[in-house]
Amino acid sequence: MSTKPAKPTTGRKFSFRPTKDGHKEATIAVMGCTGSGKTTFVNLASKSHLRVGAGLESCTDTIQKSQPFELDGYTVTLVDTPGFDDTNKSEVEILTMICDYLREEYAHRRCLRGVIYLHRISDNRVGGTALQNIRFFHRLCGDKALKNSVVITNMWNQVTSEVGTSRETELKSKDIFFKPAIDKGAAMLRHDNTIESAHNAIRHMLHNKPMPLAIQVELVTDKKPIYETEAGQTLLGEMATREQKHQRELEALKKELEEAKRDHDTEAMQDIEEARLRLDAEVGQLIDERQRLLGPDAEGARERRKLSWMRRVVLPFVHLRASVFGICCTGFVFTCLFSIYQWRSAWTHPLAIIQTGFAEGGPSLDEIP
Ligand SMILES: Nc1nc2c(ncn2[C@@H]2O[C@H](COP(=O)(O)OP(=O)(O)OP(=O)(O)O)[C@@H](O)[C@H]2O)c(=O)[nH]1
Ligand SMILES: [Mg+2]
Q1: Ligand 2 center to residue 105 CA distance, Å?
Q2: Residue 349 resides in a domain
Q3: Do both 236 and 218 map to the same domain?
């Protein structure tokens, strides 16, 4: 984003004073996979009318805010975010969008009071994309701010109580799911799609001390580009793993193609060629996405940061040395001038005595031996 962020502030400066009508403000972000019910939750809690997806494609592909609503003396605003597994937008686009929003908020001294992560208890598997969303939730919040977050399981009406409870236990206790977040202080609550349960979940966060998420500190305070943040690095790592996998598959296809050629199996050759083209396109897309995340200027940015490091550390040192050198030179010149003065004083001094002597009626020059 081109806007230059305002000077970052420390947590202490976020006052969150009550508004004129005595209400305190609470902004809470809602994250989760596509179709996990984020917009439904936001609409239910805030009586907003944001668009909810009915079909199989992702619905929310931008960041949208609910209308503010009152809850227990707080003016609450919910921020609906798109999932990282959006149908039409890439992970890089989603991460960039979320980062831009969070950067702008923190640059203007606005912190979230909490983060909600929605998870469908009806999912009988937590696959790659769900795991990726969980990982991003963790990386964006960071260990410190996780204590301000709540993992909400919904869609309980689609499972039996036993199945739901058993899945909930698994989600809570496994490291690949929510155990690390819970260990850092995140809560896990159930949501039964009623306004009461939505408000209860929000109540859980109202007394939190607003604090920046880890990604906000990285972007604003540390001035890191997105690809250098924890979340950016995670995404780059995942893209590299996927690319390696595709390359291995391409190698395997090459061998299969040779065999098919040997056997003169034209049908198999055609199938393999199609698969190869598909994989090639996916690899190409991954390369484009990585380039998009790194930006055309990634090298230049690194150079500029090196320069700014030079400016911060090396230049003051050079200036200090220059100052010391200047002081030494000035001292030397003064010492020289003073010495000359003293020498001249010593040289003129006898004459001055003589002249003074004559003036006071002393002996004439001829009388001096
Ligand atoms: N049974 C049940 N269905 C729900 C619940 N929440 C959402 N849904 C349904 O799940 C579908 C997706 O809901 P959305 O609110 O659009 O999900 P989303 O997370 O905003 O999805 P994206 O905008 O694509 O990221 C809709 O058909 C909702 O009616 C819930 O708590 N229980
Ligand atoms: Mg939505």
Answers
A1: 21
A2: no
A3: no
